[in-house]
Write a structure and sequence with these properties.
The protein is of the alpha/beta class. It has helices at residues 5-8, 31-40, 56-64, 83-90, 122-131, 146-160, 177-180, 199-212, 219-228, 233-249, 262-269, 276-284, 306-315, 325-335, 345-360, 381-389; strands spanning 45-49, 69-73, 96-105, 110-119, 135-139, 165-170, 189-193, 216-217, 256-257, 296-297, 303-304, 322-324, 369-372, 375-378. Helix 12 (276-284) packs across helix 13 (306-315).
Length: 396
Amino acid sequence: MALKAEDVFTPGAFPEYTYISRKSAVSDLSYEFRLMQALKVSGFLTSLVGPSKMGKTILCEKVVGFDKIVEMSGADFGTETDFWKLAAAKVGMAVEGQFLSEKVIAETNDRYSKKENYSLTKDKIIQYYKRENLVLVIDDFHYAPEKKRMQIAQQLKDAIRRGFKAIVVSLPHRADEAIRRNADLSGRLSMINMESWEVNDLKEIAKVGFGKLDIQISDDVAQQIAVESLSSPQLMQYICLNICTILEMSEHNDRRVKHEILETAYCYTTANFEYGDVVALMKKGPNMRGKSRNRFQTQNGKAYDIYELIVKSIAENPPIMKSEFENVKERIYRLIAVGCKKPAPQAIKESLVKMRELLHGREDIFKVLDWKEGILYILDPLFLFYLRWGGGLKNV
């Protein structure tokens, strides 16, 4: 039976037909081998760090297996969430309840039943995970409240000494300080840093996938898609899937991926991305309480305030996920008309601080960027892609 495009390109699920194994630049070992090796070391906690949408969870699913992986998210934790109750709930263990016990009276051989209460302990949960060879994966660890991260680290420290297997997944610039800088975990960490995907690795997704579907794609077209995918295999899968949709809708029944359809595919890919409110909030900036902001004349003849300039500069070519302040400033200055006033560097820095505070005070989908120690991080490649191709700059 012929494969369908949605079978081959799976941006939201495990890529059965387009899984690409990568090697670590540091050790020249595959990430699969490094993670498998880490999990074999008894008494060690594994810390897996890498940029968003880079396939960290997919790597865990590949190595651990769907039948043995237990997935949590940092977003599952509130300040009052009990770690072990949640760990039990994820595998269907009832934390407390009643059971019927049957007893026999020796003298009469009579049987009787009575209800007894039970309460699941941490030790029993650990034993269950060990007995079933389960591995707990805490994804997006940085989303848990700061104090909760410290508590989780303490719970894991005790559990791993007794053979409990766990992987903590987080973003690189937030590098799970609660885990890596925990003195009690010193010498008990297996640390794996996942580098961003190279263009050549992303190209393989397109080449392998379109090959499975008997669709031709040239190396230079695959390269263009890979560059626009912003180091994200998930985004690469999205774009390739939408290219297939365009080809299916074509009256010519074309079986080749041509340059001419790429921009259409990029725009189609953003159709269901929910970043409109995020961009609107970024452009609006914090409430000025009746005051007006300075506006700066740009080369396209329009005048923008500093928040609109920041948003527009992020979307400019080349797309960059991490920028030193000097680069951020220069991208903004390139937008300004010759001879016109430019925003002061300090004003740009202060605006970046306020923009970060504005975004991080809301739901997770708004946490698309971070400004830390003079570096601007774009946390979500799908957001940047939307900004470039999804009308994110409409009316700007």
